[in-house]
Amino acid sequence: MVGQFTQVDGEFQPEKDRYHLYVSLACPFAHRTIITRKMKGLEDAIGMTIVDYLRDENGWAFTDQRPKTSLDTVNNCKYLREVYMMVEPGYDGRVTVPVLWDKKIMTIVNNESAEILRILNKQFNAFSATEEQRNLDLSPDELMETIEEINSWVAQDINLGVYNAGFATAQEAYDEGVVKLFKALDRVEDVLSKSRYLCGDRLTEADIRLFTTLIRFDVVYVHHFKCNKKRIVDYPNLWGFTRDLYQTPGIGETVDQEHIQKHYQMVHRHINPNGIVAIGPDLDFDSPHGRDVKFQK
Question: Which sites bind glutathione (predicted)?
């Protein structure tokens, strides 16, 4: 159910109020698409439903009993699995967020976060709320080679790296995953010591994809996934970068630490059997970062 794109001359043409996003505020991969939708000013063009942060054997559920969540008013489903089964009856594969849904054809257009990010970035400019948002390009052609190279190792060693360490069931697997993770974080720290963003002086999708892992790192991954060799606050440039992006219009307001912390710590009972949610840490993402001054042209 992946790989289909909205295109002006294709089956899935960009239209206002035709498409709908199903997302989780807890999931770092869905978070990429939430940020892009917000930064591109597409809230009035593409609807969005936020699933429950709790998940049982039935998977992602719709509820109006949690902050910011809602029932499925598009397809009237109780669980996201039912949306998948509308496309493929009897579907028994993985049910993941995000999902980009076509309300006209009644099908899933795409459920790959990296691809949905690019769809929202490029294909719906006509419906952006402002000219500035319309002109924002998180995947500029002239930087794509650099973006793709950075994405390749950040995705494998950081975005997935925290899960490789956290879900390891053998010491050897944990050791391998966590060593790769911190080697990659050290590499990013070096890159960010020389430029404001991963690809230079311009914010790109590479930064968004890294940010959604960093914003969860100290509050969840350090203790819950045993990624505790260092915290992000222990990296001067990574910590500054995290605050820089958090304070960028359209990004910080998409972060919900209640959804993040309660999802990981209450759902992953094989890691946290009693589902007790930790109280901290206290982090000030609004504190001055100075990167705008440090790297001003």
Answer: 60, 94-97, 112-113
Give the tens place of pLDDT for each residue, 213-223.
999 999 999 99
pLDDT of 22 above 90: yes
Average pLDDT over residues 148-176: 98
Q: Cα–Cα distance between 240 and 244 in angstroms, integer?
A: 6
Name the architecture of domain 19-135.
3-Layer(aba) Sandwich (3.40)
Q: Which residues are annotated as a binding site for glutathione?
A: 60, 94-97, 112-113
User: Which of the residues 22, 27, 53, 221 is marked catalytic?
Assistant: 27
CATH 3.40.30.10 range(s) for the chain read 19-135
Task: List where CATH 1.20.1050.10 sits in the chain.
Answer: 141-294
Closest CA to 83 of 68, 205, 74, 246: 74
Active-site residue flag, 27: yes
What is the distance between the terminal CA atoms of the chain, rounded to a whole angstrom?
44
Out of 22, 53, 91, 163, which one is annotated catalytic? 163
Average of per-residue pLDDT across 265-288: 97
163 is known as an active-site residue: yes
Token pair in block for residue 4: 């289909």
Beta strands 55-56; 47-50: pairing state:
unpaired
SS3 261: helix
Amino acid at 29: F
3-state helix, strand, coil in the chain (%, to 5): 45, 10, 45
pTM of the complete model: 0.97
List pLDDT tens digits, range 44-68: 999 999 999 999 999 999 999 999 9
Tokens of residue 78, six digits: 């109780």
CATH class of the domain at 141-294: mainly alpha
